[in-house]
Amino acid sequence: MTNLRDAALASKAWPFEEARRVLKRYEKAPPAKGHVLFETGYGPSGLPHIGTFGEVARTTMVRRAFEMMSEIPTRLLCFSDDLDGMRKVPENVPQPDMLREHLQRPLTSVPDPFERYPSFGDHNNAMLRRFLDTFGFDYEFASATDYYKSGKMDAILLRAAERYDAIMKLMLASLREERQQTYSCFLPISPISGRVLYVPMKEVDAKAGTITFEGEDGQDCTLPVTGGHVKLQWKPDFGARWAALDVDFEMYGKDHSTNTPIYDGICQILGGRAPEHFTYELFLDENGEKISKSKGNGLTIDEWLTYAATESLSYFMYQKPKTAKRMFFDVIPRAVDEYHQQLRAYPTQDMAAQLANPVWHIHGGTPPTSHMVVPFSMLLNLASVAAAKDKSGLWGFIKRYAPDASPETHPDLDQAAAFAVRYFRDFVAPSRVFRAADPQEAAAMADLAARLRDWQGGLDAEALQSLCFAVGKDHGFEPLRAWFKALYEVLLGASEGPRFGGFIALYGVAETIDLIERALAAEFLPA
């Protein structure tokens, strides 16, 4: 264990680097609260998306890394800002007209358009928790509505009233002059309409713990800052929560990075110690635009899991968190194959390399064995040429290629076969574009078919790959990738594909000959 701890303390993997910063907070004394608190925030204004999952997955990786270095207990709190007012109607939910009637009301006071939960906020919280539970995260869920209404935020709200001038001085310096005239760090919840009101304060009475403002009826209204009658604006709320809970680590997207000094400043004004931060780059949709819960663009959690196992999504989240990621369906096959490449490499690595391997962080130090004897990308191509309707249509080819494999002994491969058929049907088949071979390509493909007829080397993928190389060289392809690109486009209707020797070994020599002959006879081209 000592050697493992020493290796963790020296590891340059980003979760260990972040964990070391948290550990340094307590190099002189352990936390008075008895644990280190990791937190993630969630704005339930729309259905949870993959970015939300990413925060929890990555924070969990840092938490696990910390636990390798220290015996201090840890907690992970997933906090939902469900007392926020609904500022706009999401584009991807039912009953938008009904929702418009409830604009600016707290999300937990807005009826659920899906008619399954007491409120829209409760619905979105349930969707988040369902998915986090699917992944087996060890977390505690916290609701802003509960924290405010139950009194858990009362002490910090009273302190905010006492230090109102200092908070306002910090906030006003960050706002345009026009916004300064109406800004208040306190947002009263109207006793008339139930809406969250963005109004200036006429008085903040720190001694009484109340605020006074002009209500919706034009009359002065006084409310206690405690008991859920008032909430904090989102920037002060960020820092106040850190102070109230004594948060040690929180990550958030790059779009929050300019607010970090404000969050830290509010926390410090309220007597807290700012946590360690980690700012990650944003997730982008197919057009390079930021993924948004309200727009519903990009991949959803359930969509990814329709086409790949959960571990591939965790792998995607681990990779280069400070680099912007385009997140669309076409990233899934590569994530699956790279994840299994790392699994296969893990047993051969020394301790330092294992701690830097993404699968250590995905599986908490005990990664499973990969049984993916056929890459996911190859299964997609097999699904294409085999016209498979389900995974059983692929297993006949897989068994011939890997006789010892079966759905029972290779469950990850069996699951991937089902995913591959589904992915091919929904994304590959509609976008395939076959083309005719030019004279040079047609001659080379006919030669490849002829050599395969005389082939005596069995289903040796490397030997078949060498044969394909030889044909390309003999027919003058320069560079050779132009030859393989032609094979993909003419035979598979795609611009890229697998190592072709491995494809022949999986699909079969006779079947590949037939595929070439059909392509050269223009069977795949539109009439």
The helicity comes to 40-55%
| Helix/strand class | alpha/beta
CATH architectural designation of the largest domain: 3-Layer(aba) Sandwich
Quote the CATH topology of the largest domain.
Rossmann fold
| Radius of gyration from the alpha-carbon trace, in angstroms | 29 Å
Low-confidence stretches: none
Number of individual domains: 3
Coarse shape: elongated
Distance between the termini: 67 Å
Kindly state the number of beta strands: 12
CATH superfamily of the largest domain: HUPs
Q: Number of DSSP helices? A: 24
What proportion of the residues form beta strands (DSSP E)?
A: 5-15%
CATH class placement of the largest domain: Alpha Beta
Query: Strands across the major sheet, in which order?
Result: 3-2-1-9-10
What tags apply to this protein structure?
Arc Repressor Mutant, subunit A, 3-stranded antiparallel sheet, Rossmann fold
TL;DR?
The chain is α/β, with parallel strands linked by helices.
What topology does this entry show?
Layout: H1 2-10, H2 14-24, E1 36-42, H3 50-69, E2 74-80, H4 96-100, H5 120-134, E3 140-143, H6 144-149, H7 154-162, H8 164-172, H9 177-180, E4 186-188, E5 203-205, E6 210-214, E7 220-224, E8 230-232, H10 234-245, E9 249-253, H11 260-269, E10 276-280, E11 283-284, H12 301-307, H13 310-318, E12 325-326, H14 332-345, H15 351-356, H16 358-362, H17 376-386, H18 392-401, H19 411-431, H20 439-453, H21 461-474, H22 481-492, H23 500-507, H24 509-520
Parallel strand pairs: 1-2, 1-9, 2-3, 9-10, 11-12
Antiparallel strand pairs: 4-8, 5-6, 6-7
Helix pairs in contact: 2-3, 7-10, 8-11, 10-11, 13-14, 17-19, 17-23, 20-21, 20-24, 21-23
